[in-house]
Amino acid sequence: MLENVGSRLKAWLVAGIGTAAAIAVAGVMGAFGARHEPLSVLAPAGRIETGQWLLRPLKAYTAEGESLYGVPLKPGAKALVLELEMTNRTAKSTKDYFDVLQADQATVDPTTKPFIVLMRDSTLSPELHPGMPERMAYIWQLPDGAAPPASLELTVIRKTYKPRDNLYGLPGWFNPAPIGTLKLPVGSGSDTADIQP
């Protein structure tokens, strides 16, 4: 009987030490896993491929006015504008571009979504057709009294195509993930020159 008690005590000790070791290893791995590699810095004048979209940044500037490309701004409000060329690389018309660019928190309020406008006719949030480059404007209204930023910092998001998703077995673009950061100088007014490649 004494042998039985000794065996059980030994088993509990081994299990306790094993559990403590496993917790310690998991903690260390978690600490190292929390470290993320910095995102690559994307060339402002280059073309950026995001899966669904081919982007070419053109210019960033601040503007004032009650109606900028038909976007209803508060009287006297300032807006931060990003002009870029977007090409739909998919087989269908789509407007799945709202999250492809995320403005840095220091530049604009992250809860503020931009207005997105087709510049040639001021259509808000249009579907873009496959293979047709279109000049688009992303417009963020700046908070009252905010000084215009010297630069616009963006995170570019890529999605991956899957012929069958896990839930419905349908094709689509999934798994959004940042691919890099983009920093553009901010000019004053729409006469700001385009970035040269």
UniProtKB/TrEMBL annotation:
Q: What keyword terms does UniProt attach to this protein?
A: Membrane, Transmembrane, Transmembrane helix
Can you name the source organism? Mesorhizobium dulcispinae
* Protein name, per record: DUF4352 domain-containing protein
Enumerate the transmembrane spans.
Answer: 12-34
Tell me if Membrane is a UniProt keyword of this record.
Answer: yes
